[in-house]
Every structure is written in structure tokens, then in C-alpha cells.
């Protein structure tokens, strides 16, 4: 049975939504959660029926969102440090945290270690697309200042993830630039372009719009650009839905039409763009599995993050990444 260490204390709203998400996941799939944190607090939100379905790892400290990321390396009794250590010691298969993302990335990278050949890990996220397959974008915040070899490795990891976990046959990989022509881009992308040609799925430069129009399955960029892209996209989605609501309220025919489309149209649209459907972002390139969720994650998001971790472990994607890097060394 897959074992997942879950930082039960790190989210914005304490243990409650995290524990509820774990319960929802247990109702649907078989796995063993190891809840890391203050056992007494955790038990306040864990129904008696589920007590024998989980294990506990006591941690008396919590890394706050205002703390420096590197603080987590010194505070060895914190929930995130102890959760990562469980992976490092081989006692669990994956770690999941909705706590301080910088602290989680720092501790996971330095304590779990990297896959041979990977210089920097990449935070990957799924973006909506007009096709049935989502678009994987990486990096979205792990490495702000990248070198060409980092972007090449991001591309290799993305291609492996799309093939093994997203089940996309022959995934297409694009390099995010300010134009689709081979000559476009800044110094970083121009230096990266010839390296990415070694990947079977590389199709060249892509523009921001191509993330959503189905042209590509994997988009590679530095973490600074990717993080801005991610947060801008979330803002656009929120704004579009708010504008729709405003205009619908002003018109009776629009209200009637919206009521008729509520379930099949708007419901499906919301599901496609809802970040809770993805749950969290895998930190690719580590010797193990680390899933990083948003601090304000809902129970639904935690549940889906757990499912991500299970899929990651079952796929053995890290072996595929290592093989791909060896082939292109």
C-alpha cells in the first residue's frame, strides 16, 4: 500500500481542511496517510472511524508563511521537516504539504536529494486547454534564474511526466517565447532552443496563447516567467467569471439562459479551470515524490493532491526521467 506523509499543520487554515481532504481521499482510494503534526490538534478534526486508517508522526513546530524558507532546515521538529524526513528514510513513498512552499521546496530538495543529472528541480502545474488533455507548464516558481541546461532538464522531465502520468502518447514540448519563430526569444531561450532539439517531442517555440489552444502538451520556461504566468492566468479566470455574473444579473433573458446552462456549460467550464481539480504541483527532479499545494487549499484540493501523489508513485516516472537524461547526456 502506498504511504504518504502529509503535513497536517502547514496550511493557511490549520489542520481542518487538510484532514477533511485526507478523509475524502480515503473514501475513494486505498492508501496509508501518515499525518505529521500535533496529534492532539489533528484528532480534534479526525472522526473516530478514521483513526485506525491513519498513522501519526508527532511534530510540535510549524513553519509560518512569514518565516524564511531556510528556517525549515534548522527547525527539525517542524511538520514539514519531519514529513520530508519520512521520505528520505524510506518510510513513506511521497510527501504532501500545503504549507510554506519555499520551505517545502528547500527541505525537499536538500534532504531528499535530486535525480542523477538534475541540477535544479522544477515545480510543474497543469493549465486548462481546449482539448481533453491539460497543458503541463514548468517551472512555475522553483528556479527564478535559470541556465539553458536547467530548461533542457525541465523539458525532459515534462516530457516524461506527460507520457507516464498524463498518459499522452508522444507528448509535444514547446519553449515559451515571445514568438513561435525559431529566432524569437531572449538570450536564455535562444541558448536553450538547440538543446531541446534533442527531445523527440520538441516542436520549437510557443507563445502564451498556445498553452490553452491545444498546440502543445508541455511548456518549458524559467520559474520567474512561469510564476507570473500562473498567477496571471488565475486572475484572468476569476475576472472572466465575475464579469459573466455581473452581465447576467443585468438582463432577465441572460438570467434564464444562465439557469439553463448552469449545470452542463458553466459547471463543466468551472471544472476545467478550477485549480482545486489539480490539487497541487509536483516538484519534479527529486529522489522521491513531493506535492506542493496552495496554502488556502480546500479539502477537495487536498484530496486531488493525494491522488496526484498516488499516480506519481505508481507511474515510477523518476526512472523514466533518469533514463531520458542518460540518453541525451
The end-to-end span amounts to 35 Å
Biggest β-sheet description: 11 strands, mixed
Tally the structural domains.
2
Rg estimate, integer Å:
20 Å
Number of helices: 11
What is the CATH architecture assignment of the largest domain? 3-Layer(aba) Sandwich
Low-confidence sequence ranges: none
Main-sheet strand order equals 3-2-1-4-11-10-5-6-9-7-8
Describe it for me?
Strand 10 and strand 11 form a beta hairpin. The protein folds into 2 domains: 150 residues, Isopropylmalate Dehydrogenase (3-Layer(aba) Sandwich); 154 residues, Isopropylmalate Dehydrogenase, CATH 3.40.718.10. The protein is globular, with a radius of gyration of 20 Å. 44% of the residues are buried. It has 329 residues and is an alpha/beta fold. The chain has an 11-stranded mixed β-sheet, sandwiched between helices. The mean pLDDT is 87. The two termini are 35 Å apart.
Question: Any key phrases for this structure?
Answer:
11 helices, Isopropylmalate Dehydrogenase, 46% helix, 329 residues
How are the elements arranged and paired?
Layout: E1 3-7, H1 15-28, E2 32-37, H2 39-45, E3 55-58, H3 71-74, H4 79-88, E4 94-97, H5 101-112, E5 122-127, E6 135-138, H6 148-164, E7 173-176, H7 187-196, E8 202-206, E9 218-220, H8 223-249, H9 252-273, E10 281-284, E11 289-292, H10 299-315, H11 317-327
Parallel strand pairs: 1-2, 1-4, 2-3, 4-11, 6-9, 7-8, 7-9
Antiparallel strand pairs: 5-6, 5-10, 10-11
Amino acid at each position: 500500500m502506498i504511504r504518504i506523509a502529509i503535513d497536517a499543520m502547514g496550511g493557511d487554515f490549520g489542520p481542518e481542511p487538510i484532514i477533511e481532504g485526507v478523509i475524502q481521499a480515503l473514501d475513494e482510494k486505498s492508501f496509508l496517510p501518515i499525518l505529521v503534526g500535533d496529534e492532539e490538534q489533528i484528532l480534534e478534526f479526525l472522526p473516530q472511524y478514521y483513526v485506525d486508517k491513519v498513522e501519526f508522526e508527532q511534530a510540535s513546530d510549524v513553519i509560518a508563511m512569514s518565516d524564511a524558507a531556510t528556517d525549515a532546515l534548522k527547525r527539525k521538529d517542524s511538520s514539514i521537516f519531519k514529513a520530508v524526513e519520512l521520505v528520505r528514510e524510506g518510510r513513506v513513498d511521497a510527501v504532501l504539504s500545503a504549507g510554506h512552499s519555499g520551505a517545502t521546496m528547500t527541505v525537499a530538495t536538500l534532504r531528499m536529494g535530486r535525480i542523477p543529472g538534475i541540477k535544479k528541480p522544477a515545480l510543474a502545474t497543469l493549465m486548462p486547454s481546449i482539448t481533453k488533455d491539460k497543458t503541463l507548464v514548468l517551472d512555475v516558481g522553483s528556479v527564478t534564474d535559470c541556465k539553458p541546461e536547467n530548461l533542457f532538464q525541465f523539458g525532459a522531465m515534462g516530457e516524461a511526466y506527460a507520457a507516464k502520468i498524463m498518459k499522452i502518447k508522444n507528448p509535444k514540448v514547446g519553449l515559451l517565447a515571445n514568438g513561435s519563430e525559431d529566432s524569437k526569444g531572449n538570450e536564455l531561450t535562444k541558448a536553450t532552443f538547440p538543446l531541446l532539439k534533442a527531445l523527440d517531442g520538441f516542436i520549437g517555440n510557443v507563445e502564451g496563447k498556445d498553452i490553452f489552444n491545444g498546440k502543445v502538451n508541455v511548456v518549458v520556461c524559467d520559474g520567474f516567467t512561469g510564476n507570473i504566468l500562473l498567477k496571471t492566468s488565475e486572475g484572468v479566470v476569476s475576472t472572466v467569471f465575475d464579469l459573466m455574473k455581473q452581465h447576467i444579473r443585468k438582463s432577465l433573458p441572460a438570467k434564464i439562459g444562465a439557469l439553463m446552462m448552469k449545470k452542463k456549460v458553466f459547471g463543466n467550464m468551472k471544472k476545467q479551470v478550477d485549480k482545486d481539480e489539480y490539487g497541487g504541483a509536483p516538484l519534479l527532479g527529486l529522489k522521491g515524490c513531493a506535492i506542493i499545494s496552495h496554502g488556502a487549499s480546500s479539502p477537495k484540493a487536498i484530496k486531488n493532491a493525494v491522488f496526484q501523489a498516488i499516480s506519481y508513485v505508481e507511474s515510477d516516472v523518476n526512472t523514466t526521467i533518469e533514463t531520458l537524461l542518460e540518453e541525451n547526456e
